[in-house]
Design a protein that fits this description.
Oligomer: heterodimer
Structural class of chain B: alpha/beta
Order of helices and strands of chain A: HHEEEEEEEHHHHHHEEHHHHHHHHHHHH
Order of helices and strands of chain B: HEHHEEHHEHEHEHEEEE
InterPro entries (chain B): TFIIH_Tfb4/GTF2H3, vWFA_dom_sf
Keywords (chain B): DNA damage, DNA repair, Metal-binding, Nucleus, Transcription, Transcription regulation, Zinc, Zinc-finger
Family (chain B): Belongs to the TFB4 family.
Mean pLDDT of chain B: 80
Shape of chain A: flat
Radius of gyration of chain B: 25 Å
GO cellular component, one term (chain B): transcription factor TFIIH holo complex
Low-confidence stretches of chain B: 33-38, 111-123, 329-340
Subcellular location (chain B): Nucleus
Strand content of chain B: 5-15%
Largest interface: A-B, 56 and 74 residues
Low-confidence stretches of chain A: 39-56, 287-292, 375-398
Distance between the termini of chain A: 48 Å
Number of helices of chain A: 20
Number of helices of chain B: 8
């Protein structure tokens, strides 16, 4: 395992340098990595040599590529069943070897470059680059290596890595957890599995929620976004991306139809789009000029679609579109009778205006319909909106239920519905005066005879009849001084106040340490106490182990802290409570063990 | 009034009602002036004194050096000190008796030093020591009212318990009335109640007491307690809930000193002083059957009454219960009625 440790040390150092700062974390990161990768144990190798020898490998070699350079050194690349390795020319050992499970991804240099390279990026962030320098077959070599890796890497992407990342993420996000981890696992008080045992179950549920993705809709301005750029010499250049093309097809199925018909049989894609943009179909004034244009049919289809949409009307019976018409009072109030739209001699301008408005409406309706169509047009028989896109569908069947639902929604008010609460039982109190009696014991009152009462009253009456306020003789100095003594710190009445607040006794760093101790102790005690009642042999072992963990914690953490505090801040017993808690745990275990012994006997 | 001292002659220009009207009016004018001059918030202290004659009578026989007179003196000193602190401090004194609760100060029935005011009296109260007139008036009023309360004490019913809950309720009403009055004038008011308690708690006033405490808490009114004789659980709870101070004093003759030291500072000043720490309050409930204070008990889930022992039928609401008996009692299974 010597080589592993060395690699891991190097890797962890690199990672630590980029991520965290101090020396203690290096140690725990090392341990963490060892824990995780311990499951991928490689057969033990000869400890004497610093790197693996080729002869001692018992692994199957899948691909050997000669003349591969790494770090300006010639060598050979070996792809094996579980790892990829490279050894220098003429030498007998691998200087670079990576397990497939360590590799996060591979990268290749772009096609046009002179150097043909393959880069492996590991999970730790480190990367190794291999330069294929075989003159004749460099490209094929590289492709072969890439393809093989592509097949092999997914197999080795173990879940352990994902968990490792998850754990790292959790530790980085929560500093308290991080501190707890440092205190407990790094100092070997408890093992990492126990630490993670309770925490990992909460993280699995979160991953399933992020799998649902939302479909991307169509931008309403997608046609306008294709801004033509002047080509220099009286030409226009349109940039069409696949996204725009997809938007066009989703919004205008007619165009998609035409595309399917003509490309690639009659026209190339470029020509098709050129024609599209040239056609009047695309442009503002859609006055159909001739039948030569392949898109003139589209225009006619659109007209038909628009008409059918208008005929269908709105599904919601409560929406009255007709009320949105211009309502005028009389002529002269912004309304002139001469310009009526039903005039057959419409001017050209009015015609083009109405044409534009028609096109806008159609365009918007198509976009809305495309958004809800979601690409599977033939299966969309049942959706309500599929019939609003103007294409002929049998939508009349579905109108009445929808109308009913809308009407029902409008007349249903929650408050007006009858309240059907659960049946309750009436409360039947027989002696309700019991509640009015305070927490004062019944027989505590002193018994006074009626004679006493009469005596007291007469006495008081007599006294008060002769009462004159004498405010100058209210107090004697002896009484006052004893009262002041009782009220001063340390006096009779101030006894309970000597338990000072901890923030007055020790500085904040010590308080912080105490807080960490409490968190760590709490974690350990939680593990301990959840073992009770001890039902299984696993719990029996665990409870004994926890006791030893607690003792270890007490020895390594609690005692030194206590001594330090007592040395510096005399008579401050701030760890008393912690000791008490630990002692309770020990007592409980002792009691349980004696009971078990008794039962056995 | 001492007969040997010469009586001062003053022009008589006030009737009894006019005097107290003037008192109140002057207070209001003060307030208006304050509203214009400075916006200090008012600080109202209501002292509720337990003057149970039975207890005080017995006390007079037990300990003649500390009697009701001494206690009244101490309370007057406290009241004067409070009013002397700033001009925006106000005082009210309520006596808590077993027959009623009575406002000692301010009072509408002030009759002057010589008995009934019959309109022919031509002298104003005479204090003779050049004291701030407000203080001397207050003292005289308190003394007079106390004498009247004590002289009209009669033992009618059986109850010898001090009506503390009622007095606290009256105090709260007084405070709230003042708050409403001053709130409309734009003045803020902070208030607290100081209870000087002698006799024991009355269990029958528990419900009212708790209501008063929670009402005070809602209105941010402190309830302080100075207890002379035996510890009172209800007052401990009151102080804990409202944030006041509870103190049982060891020496009664030094009452004035304790009052001035502990209860004179108001809420803002208290954190800066070293005052007696809060007592540990016993919040245990009492079981409905024996009235013992218990920590662990059985609660009926229907009527929430507390019992110290399990019984299959709740005696308050007559619901029948089944309970899982522990394993070892399997042989003695009792037949229990099914719950409704």
């Amino acid at each position: 395992m010597a080589v592993y440790v060395k690699d891991l040390i190097r890797i962890s150092h690199n990672w630590v340098d980029t991520h965290t700062c101090d020396v203690t974390t290096r140690g725990w990161i090392l341990r963490l990595l060892i824990n995780i990768t311990a499951s991928v144990v490689y057969p033990p190798l000869d400890d004497s040599c610093p790197s693996t020898t080729m002869a001692s490998l018992s692994e199957e070699v899948l691909l050997v590529l000669k003349k591969v350079r790494q770090r300006k050194q010639d060598g050979t690349l070996y792809l094996m069943a579980e790892r990829i390795a490279w050894g220098p020319e003429g030498k007998d050992r691998f200087t670079v070897s990576h397990l497939y499970s360590d590799i996060r991804c591979q990268k290749i240099s772009p096609d046009g470059k002179a150097k043909i390279q393959l880069q492996l990026v590991l999970h730790t962030g480190e990367s190794s680059t291999f330069h294929f320098s075989n003159d004749s077959s460099a490209l094929t070599d590289r492709e072969a290596a890439k393809d093989l890796l592509q097949q092999l890497l997914p197999k080795f992407k173990k879940k352990a890595n994902k968990e490792l990342e998850e754990k790292n993420r959790m530790l980085q996000e929560d500093p308290v957890l991080f501190q707890l981890y440092k205190d407990l696992v790094v100092s070997q008080v408890i093992s990492a599995e126990e630490f993670w045992a309770n925490r990992m179950s909460t993280t699995n549920t979160e991953n399933t929620l992020s799998d649902k993705k939302q479909d991307v809709g169509i931008s309403a301005a997608f046609l306008a976004d294709i801004r033509p750029q002047t080509d220099g010499c009286n030409g226009l250049r349109y940039n069409l991306t696949p996204d725009i093309i997809e938007s066009i097809f989703r919004t205008y199925p007619a165009v998609q139809q035409k595309y399917g018909e003509n490309v690639p049989h009659n026209l190339t894609e470029k020509e098709f789009w050129t024609r599209f943009f040239q056609s009047h179909y695309f442009h503002r004034d859609r006055i159909s000029t001739g039948a030569l244009d392949i898109f003139s049919e589209c225009a006619k289809q659109d007209e038909k679609g628009l008409k059918s949409m208008v005929v269908q009307g709105v599904k919601n019976p409560l929406v009255n579109l007709l009320s949105l018409e211009d309502k005028t009072i009389e002529e002269g109030y912004g309304f002139s009778a001469a310009a009526s739209t039903s005039n057959p001699n419409r001017t050209g301008k009015e015609n083009s205006n109405s044409a534009i408005i028609k096109r806008f409406n159609h365009h918007s309706a198509m976009i809305l319909a495309a958004g809800s169509r979601r690409g599977d047009a033939p299966n969309d028989q049942a959706s309500e909106t599929s019939s609003t896109d103007g294409n002929s569908r049998d939508s009349d069947l579905f109108q009445p239920p929808i109308k009913k639902v809308k009407l029902q929604e409008a007349i249903d008010y929650l408050d007006l519905q009858r309240e059907d609460g659960p049946k309750t039982v009436a409360l039947n109190l027989k002696k309700s005066d019991r509640y009015a009696h305070g927490p004062v014991p019944l027989e505590s009152q002193k018994y006074t005879t009626s004679q006493d009462i009469i005596n007291s009253i007469t006495c008081i009456r007599h006294e008060m009849a002769n009462y004159v306020p004498n405010l100058a003789q209210v107090l004697t100095s002896s009484a006052v001084s004893s009262a002041i003594a009782a009220l001063s710190p340390g006096g009779v009445l101030m006894q309970t106040g000597t338990q000072q607040a901890i923030n007055q006794m020790v500085p904040s760093e010590v308080q912080g340490e105490l807080k960490h101790l409490y968190i760590a102790a709490g974690e350990l005690l939680r593990h301990f106490w959840t073992c009770f009642p001890v039902n299984s042999p696993f719990l029996e072992e665990k409870v004994v182990k926890m006791r030893s963990n607690l003792e270890r914690f007490q020895m390594t953490k609690l005692r030194p802290f206590q001594e330090k505090v007592q040395r510096q801040y005399l008579s401050a017993n701030i760890t008393g409570h912690l000791e008490e808690m630990l002692q309770t745990a020990y007592n409980k275990l002792h009691a349980w063990q004696t009971r078990r012994m008794m039962r056995k006997i | 009034m001492d007969a040997t001292k010469p009586k001062r002659r003053r022009k008589r220009h006030h009737t009894a009602t006019e005097i107290d009207e003037q008192l109140f009016v002057s207070h209001f004018i003060n307030l208006q002036l304050h509203f214009v001059i400075n916006k200090d918030e008012l600080n109202l202290l209501v002292i509720v004194m337990d003057v149970n004659p039975i207890w005080w009578g017995q006390q007079a026989q037990r300990e003649p050096e500390f009697t009701l007179s001494k206690c009244l003196d101490a309370v007057m000193v406290m009241g004067n000190s409070h009013m002397a602190m700033t001009t925006t401090n106000r005082l009210a004194v309520i006596s808590s008796h077993f027959q009623d609760s009575h406002f000692l100060y301010p009072c509408k029935n002030w009759t002057g030093g010589d008995g009934a005011w019959d309109g022919t009296m031509d002298e104003a109260p005479y204090c003779g020591d050049g004291k701030y007139e407000l203080l001397s008036v207050a003292n005289n009023v308190v003394a007079e009212e106390m004498k009247r309360v004590m002289s009209t004490t009669e033992m009618k019913g059986n109850s010898t318990d001090t009506l503390l809950a009622g007095s606290l309720a009256k105090a709260l009403c007084c405070i709230l009335l003042k708050i409403v009055t001053f709130f409309s004038a734009g003045q803020e008011m902070k208030s607290r109640i100081l209870v000087i308690k002698t006799a024991e708690d009355c269990a029958r006033q528990y419900m009212n007491f708790m209501n008063v405490i929670f009402a005070a808490q809602k209105q941010n009114i402190l309830i302080d307690a100075c207890v002379l004789d035996s510890d009172s659980g209800l007052l401990q709870q009151a102080c804990d809930i409202t944030g006041g101070l509870y103190l049982k004093i060891p020496q009664k003759i030094a009452l004035a000193q304790y009052l001035l030291w502990v209860f004179l500072p108001d809420l803002e000043q208290r954190p800066q002083l070293v005052l007696p720490p809060p007592v540990h309050v016993d919040y245990r409930a009492a079981c409905f059957c024996h009235r013992n204070l218990i920590e662990i008990g059985y609660v009926c889930s229907v009527c929430l009454s507390i019992f110290c022992n399990f019984s299959p039928i709740c005696t308050t609401c007559e619901t029948a219960f089944k309970i899982q008996l522990p394993q070892m009692m399997k042989s003695k299974k009792k037949k229990l009625k099914q719950s409704i």
